[in-house]
Amino acid sequence: MHCQRFGLDVYITRHASERMVQRRVSDSEIAELMETGEIRYKDSQRLWVAKAFEDRCDNLICVAVALEDTLVVKTVMHHFSWEVEG
């Protein structure tokens, strides 16, 4: 999978793949999430990308990503909500 938004290939870890199966998140949903989801950076190399999908009822789907030579998807979460900054 390649992400045009970041200009990098996407690598999904074994852990993230397992969470995708458990949470019934498809490859196409991950691809759409990476291209169009809301981004929040933890620092210059770690970020979260989240998106609500109309046909899902489990709130936002979110991936934790590391920016390396590829976009490394570390985990996949559902029933996600952004923490309030303050």
Strand count, sense and barrel status of the largest sheet are: 6 strands, mixed
Q: Encode the helix/strand succession as letters.
A: EEHHEEEE
CATH class: Alpha Beta
> C-alpha Rg, in Å?
12 Å
Alpha-beta content class = alpha+beta
Shape: globular
CATH domain fold name: YaeB-like fold
Distance N to C terminus: 36 Å
> Which architecture does the CATH hierarchy give at level 2?
2-Layer Sandwich
Query: How would you describe the oligomerization state of the chains in this entry?
Result: single chain
What's the number of helices? 2
Strand order in space, largest sheet: 1-2-6-5-4-3
Which regions are unreliable across 5 or more consecutive residues at pLDDT < 50?
Answer: none
Number of domains: 1
Key phrases:
6 strands, 2 helices, 86 residues, 22% helix, YaeB-like fold, six-stranded mixed beta sheet, alpha+beta, globular, 42% strand
Write a compact overview of the structure shown:
This protein is of the alpha+beta class. The protein is 22% helix and 42% strand.
Report on this structure.
- This is DUF4258 domain-containing protein.
- This protein is 22% helix and 42% strand.
- The chain contains two helices and six strands; from the N terminus they run ββααββββ.
- The chain has helices at 14-22, 27-36; strands at residues 2-3, 8-12, 38-41, 46-52, 60-67, 71-80.
- Strands 1-2-6-5-4-3 form a six-stranded mixed beta sheet.
- A hairpin with a 4-residue loop joins strand 1 (2-3) and strand 2 (8-12).
- The chain is globular.
Could you give the topology of this structure?
Elements: E1 2-3, E2 8-12, H1 14-22, H2 27-36, E3 38-41, E4 46-52, E5 60-67, E6 71-80
Parallel strand pairs: 2-6
Antiparallel strand pairs: 1-2, 3-4, 4-5, 5-6
